[in-house]
Amino acid sequence: MPPGRCAGCREGQALDFSIAMAFQPIVDLRSGRAWAYEALVRGAEGESAAEVLAQVTPENRYAFDQQCRVAAIEGAVAAGLLDTDARLSINFLPNAVYSPLACIQLTLRTAEAEGLPTDRLMFEFTENEEMADPDHVLNIVETYRRMGFTTALDDFGAGFAGLGLLARFQPDVLKLDMALLRGLDTSEPRRLIVESMATLCRKLGVTVVAEGIETQDELDAVRALGIDLVQGYLLAKPAFQALPEPVLS
User: Does residue 65 sit in helix, strand or coil?
Assistant: First the structure.
């Protein structure tokens, strides 16, 4: 099969609804600047992610995944990403990737057309969706890494596989789910779990991101554990078709 074609190209249903992107920064506490911007799907008029995702079916998920990548790159560049040194983080659906090399071609063409270096792309996959074929996902992660992309495991601690998934995939970045971090400043068990995860990831060479930080006390607790990359409403809410500046007190 040619590298630009795969089963999804031939058999997938075209996307019959429009999407756009909101962007939320992952902030480096050491510099106070955005280390990356995560692209979050929205409707063309800013409708919620839930409204958009409700329209995704097994038949159109390939087209949806592809269009999300295009919308993320084009939207981020239009919003000024190239004026920063931040990465662009794109969520992808592992079950929508038929062939890693074939399915990445549109992403590569879009990045080239927009002038975005591909080493500034980060791809996130979540453990919330049960994986029908873990070997296929491992192949995607390894292929993306060989191509120079950063890979990230999102929502860690809230999904199906937990430590088993981390042991198998070992992404470049691990994003700790907000469920682990909520009330971190007042919960000794949560603090010990997060501290252990941060220590483990350092030994594995995996960068940790703390997601969903909403209070100054949570931020202080995360910082005290040596976690430098943080995402959450305290620092910046997602902005529709814009790159919000993080605010650190």
Answer: helix
Nearest by Cα to 33 from 41, 44, 21, 25:
25
30 CB neighbour count, 10 Å cutoff: 10
> pTM for this structure?
0.91
| Chain segment 97-127, per-residue pLDDT in tens | 888 999 999 999 999 999 999 999 999 987 5
pLDDT tens-place string over residues 186-240: 999 999 999 999 999 999 999 999 999 999 999 999 999 999 999 999 999 999 9
Closest CA to 223 of 203, 247, 194: 194
Where does the chain show beta strands of DSSP type E? Answer: 19-28, 33-43, 87-91, 121-126, 150-156, 173-176, 207-210, 229-230, 239-240
89 dihedral zone (left: phi>0; alpha: psi -120 to 50; beta) = beta
Establish how many alpha carbons lie within 13 A of residue 248's alpha carbon, considering only the half-sphere containing its beta carbon: 17
d(CA 139, CA 13): 25
Structure-token match 């993320």, residue found: 72
Whether 219 contacts 213, CB under 8 Å: yes
| CA gap 22, 3 in Å, rounded | 31
Pairing of strands 121-126, 150-156: parallel
Place of tokens 């070997």: 135
CB half-sphere exposure, 140, CA atoms < 13 A: 25
